Amino acid sequence: MTPRRLLLSGLFLWCAAIAATPLLSSLGGAGAGAASLSYEFFSRVCHQLDSRSFHIAGYKMAVCIRCTSIYAAFFLSVLFSPMLSRTFLAAVPARVLLIASGLPMAVDVGLAALGIHESNVFTRMTSGALFGCALSIVLVPTLDEVIGWLFFRRDSKQNWQSVPKESLNTLRQSG
Amino acid sequence: MPALYGGLIIAGISAIPGLNLINVCCCAGILLGGFLAVFFYKQEITPEMDPLTSNDCVRLGAFTGVIAAVAGTAITVVVMLVFGNIALEMMMKIVHRMNVELPPNIEEMIDQGMEEKISFFGMMFSLFFNLIVDVLFSTLGGLIGWAVFKPKPQYPQQSF
Fold first, then answer.
1. Which of A62, B14, B67, B94 is the most exposed place for a label (fewest CB within 10 A)?
2. Is the pTM for the entire model greater than 0.95?
3. How many domains are there within chain B?
């Protein structure tokens, strides 16, 4: 296990929860109960409007199309990060990348809220995916470092070793 | 103090009706709070102090999230007790302006939600979920702050 794999596992679980929620709803009973908890949790991060969400088995996903695209793009970008690191994007300053990728989304949301332009599935998906990719390029190197600091340590050959729980507190106390 | 400022900004954005619509854009308000906490902290760093590190940003983001969750829940409870569920009313106005048609049963549920009063259990439930979401996204906001404000490296950066 490496920090990158732990990050990918967490992202996969997050995306899987979003996609599994409508499936749980369709099961009924305890599944529907679990799904309602999931909808409640994700309501903190998304408006969850039915008409602006993908549907699986007749039920909406836990977040809207735009949010789904952001999370899916973030996950896929982390998965394919070795390829992305060879592109010119890795050299672009973080603030430029964030502003450039966030602008289409801000314009799409802003114009829709003002009633000037009706955003559609394509604009939501592409603007969300663009932002998710850019966010992964900006955050992944730091996330690797932070997860490594929290849960791992390097051995003499600079390979990641997961830290046993009893050692974790000792390491943190020693800084 | 930077975490306090960031946390209060998040709490204000999350709890004040109208402003909390920012958070429907994937918690943009919470990310902003974490980002601003790092920005405020960076303003306080003097040349005699240690430079900003990614660990500082993670801690700042996490503390900001905790403050935001507690303060936001408290402000939400006060607003609901004094003004009722006007956040939901404002959300519905925007939904109607955007010509989004809601199924009748959903409209009925929303009307019921607008009439409901806040309960202690509901408040605790809300606080628990807010803690998870606010800490997570505020920490991400702190990491975005690190990516933007980190000192320029003296050596070639490792590619990811």
1. B94
2. no
3. 1
